[in-house]
Amino acid sequence: MSRANVGAREGRWYWECKILSGINPPSRESSMTDGSSGDGGHVRIGWARREASLDSPVGFDAYSYGLRDVAGQKIHMSRPKDFMPPGEAFNEGDVIGLEITLPSLNLHRKVVEGSYNKAVDVSDDLDPHPPTEVADVIRDRIPIRYKYVVLFEQFEYHTTKDLEELMNPSPILSTNATTAATNAPPNPNHPLPTLRTLPFSSIKVYKNGKYVGTPFTDLLAFLPLASKPLNQAGARDGLDDGVLGYYPAISVFRGGAAEINFGPDFWFPPEELAHTSVVTTNGINSKEHEADEDVDMLPADDAASTSATAIAATDPSTKKQHALGKNSRLRALGERYNEQIAEDIVWDIIDE
């Protein structure tokens, strides 16, 4: 599995993947006369956490969620399940888009700290008022001198027995309280932090720009204590280095190949992204400015209402209406790169 170096922590993010070498379209297979199946390889795509093994394909364990080209199945913890309608699997030449939605870090922390209340926390809280207290992010790096160069080692996070047990339940029944708790399905109020899920989280799939469906909801939480660093110098339980999250991931087999696009110029953008304003560094909408220099300004309430209506029309699975801000609107994952660099600089200054 290959994993991107920039991931999502909160908000709505989109990226897409073009299948360059994979399962041939039915029309091409039927035209082959040499008796071969025409199988050009296989591709899996999805989202993976920091703990997901790079030696395994997407969807192998509880730390990643994947989509297979074979029959368009979804896969998680090595358990494939039907997802795409018959005949709609993605083939060579198709562009598959993946959108992830994650609640705000404030709500996320409530989940991992055990204070989430379904009756009170009824919103994803993606665009809250600025918090009076911000959770600490530790960017400490371990300096290593190598060939007259100082390198900085990043903390790594390890898999937990709780999620291993979830993937492969022990056949031996036990009355142990921990085992009994592990057997409960993952949920936001699970007794074990590693098995708590994120309300309002989901992964949506698009094929050639058209919405297909939502294969995964209630994704597993990733903030500490749901994630734990390896036992190394400076590491400790509860450590958040600011780069925990869900990352784009892809696996290829038997000659499969794919091209990744993190935006902003997508091959088949969803309707919401296709109508999103592209703001340049000088604050001018570059796409609309070329066609019309006059810009109509809408009141904030009207603009939010218009955006929410557009989303509801684009995605029939959207049931929840809320005012859209920076985190609530769908964004190209490529935008996250500059944000992560800025966060690195800020937290390094604070740590110093």
Summed up:
20% of the residues lie in helices and 24% in strands.
Strand order of the largest sheet: 1-14-3-4-5-6
Determine Rg (CA atoms, Å): 22 Å
Q: Structural class, from helix and strand content?
A: alpha+beta
Helix content estimate: 10-25%
Shape: globular
Give the strand content: 15-25%
Mean pLDDT: 79
Secondary-structure element series: EEHEEEEEHEEEHHEEEEEHHHEH
Which spans have pLDDT < 50 for at least 5 consecutive residues? Answer: 29-37, 277-314, 316-323
Q: Count of helical segments?
A: 8
Intertermini distance: 35 Å
Number of strands: 16
For the biggest sheet, the summary is: 6 strands, antiparallel
Describe this structure in words.
Helix content is 20%, strand content 24%. The protein is built from eight helices and 16 strands. It has a six-stranded antiparallel beta sheet, with no helix packed on it. β5 and β6 form a beta hairpin. It is globular and about 55 Å long. The chain starts with a strand and ends with a helix. About 16% of the residues have low confidence.
